[in-house]
Structures are given as C-alpha cells and as structure tokens.
Specification:
Length: 264
C-alpha cells in the first residue's frame, strides 16, 4: 500500500527566489540565539551588537523578498517566529543576566511578560488587514514593533555600555522600562512603520549620504549612537500618534464627502 506523503518544503519549486530572504531570516535567528550565548559569557557588548544586526536583517528580508518577488507564506511565518526569538526571548534573557536577576523571581516574571507580549503583538500583526480605502495605514504599526521594542528594552544596558552614564539602580530602571515596553507592544498606539518609507528618487543621494554618516557613527561611537537612536525613536512616538490621528480624521471627512456625493 502506497501512502501519499506530503513533504514540507521551505523553498517552493515554483518560487525559488524566496531562498535569499528566508536565508536572511534564518541568519537573524542565529544572531538572536548567539546574543543569549554572549550574555551568558558576560559579553554584553557583543550581545547588543548581535541584536542590532538581527534588527537590520529583519528590515532587509522583507524588502529583499518584495524586490526579487520572493514572498511566500512560509517566509511570513518564519519571520514571525524569528522575531519572537530575536526580539522577544533574547533581549529578555540579556537583561535578566545583566541586572534583572538581582530582583529574583520578579525579574524573571518581567522577562516572561515581555516575551508573551511580543508573541501576542506578532500574532495580532499577522491577522491585521488594511481596507482598500485606508492604504495610508500601511505607514503605521499598531503598537511598538518587536525590533524597536528590543531596542527600548536594551536601552539601559546600552546607556551603561556607552559610558555616558552609569545607572545606580539598573535593576529598578530596567524593570520599569521592560514593563512599559511590554504594554506599548500590545497597545494600539500607532507608530511609524520605518520598513514602508518610500524615498523620492531625487532624495536618494541624500539618503545614501545619511546612511554613510550613520554607519560611520555606529562604527566609531557604537553604543552612543544606538542610545541616541533609541531616544529619537521615543520622540517620534507621540509625533506618529498625532500624525495618525490627523490622517484618520482627514480620511473620515473624505469618506463622508464621498457618501454625500453618491446620495446626491
């Protein structure tokens, strides 16, 4: 008797172009797990850098998939699982090994809360759909995305590594930061989707110049640059909220006007 066995295929024969973005996603998993290993070895500098590279790959894999037309359902699910590991589990472990273990079970509870909120946020993201008449919403996330949340959670450690300031009560500060970030992830506060930013062609040269300057700062002033990048993101959060509200109000007015025209 011959059984009809279905094979699980990471790369579909009909869509071999998905190999590259999926490979980038898997590399992100390796970086997330490696960051935990670095934290265990008390090499927090490399742990933070590994998470930073994982965030860069998370930004690139989606763009590469759309560029080479290699998007797939497997890639979408793989990306979410990678985000849970690299930006949900790994940052929590890093902060626990660095300082949260000082407050015992409460510190571990915060790590669990953060990881669960990250998983819930990604599950909600996968089920989010945008109406055709609200395409502008593609420029916003609902809640803080997991890569940004990982950066915010690691901010006290990054500040400590930068040498700009040594936190006296790092466990308390880290606890507050991880709790607030967990709430922001599962909240419905709109935040900018940096993955979807479209730069006009005539601004490309300035974009490349800016990227070059930023990379130079990261190379020579790694943790100082990462810390101020985190502060800039925090400043952008209220701006994105009011921007979203303005666009939403404008969209509602336009919809009402269209309905009135149809009635007339």
């Amino acid at each position: 008797m011959i059984e009809n066995k279905k094979e699980f295929k990471l790369i579909s024969k009909k869509n071999p172009k998905s190999l590259l973005p999926n490979a980038l996603t898997i590399f992100g998993v390796c970086l997330g797990l490696s960051s935990i290993k670095f934290a265990i070895d008390i090499n927090y500098s490399m742990a933070v850098i590994a998470i930073a590279f994982a965030a860069i790959l998370d930004t690139l894999d989606g763009r590469v998939a759309r560029l080479v037309k290699g998007t797939s359902k497997v890639g979408k699910e793989l990306d979410s699982l990678t985000d849970v590991i690299s930006f949900g589990v790994a940052p929590g472990f890093i902060m626990y090994f660095w300082t949260l273990n000082e407050i015992g079970k409460f510190g571990w509870m915060l790590v669990l809360i953060y990881a669960v909120c990250c998983a819930l946020r990604l599950a909600r993201f996968n089920l989010t759909t945008i109406e055709e008449n609200e395409t502008w919403k593609i420029n916003f996330f609902e809640g803080v995305p997991s890569p940004a949340a990982a950066g915010l959670v690691l901010l006290p450690l990054i500040l400590n590594l930068s040498g700009l300031n040594q936190l006296g009560s790092s466990a308390i500060v880290s606890s507050i930061v991880i709790l607030i970030t967990s709430i922001l992830m599962v909240s419905k506060i709109p935040t900018y989707s940096l993955k979807r930013i479209i730069i006009p062609r005539h601004f490309t040269i300035f974009l490349l110049l800016g990227i070059g300057i930023y990379l130079s700062l990261v190379i020579f002033y790694t943790f100082e640059t990462l810390f101020f990048s985190g502060l800039i993101y925090i400043i952008l959060m209220p701006i994105s909220y009011f921007h979203y509200k303005h666009l939403n109000k404008k969209s509602v007015i336009t919809s009402v006007q269209d309905v009135d025209e149809d009635v007339l």
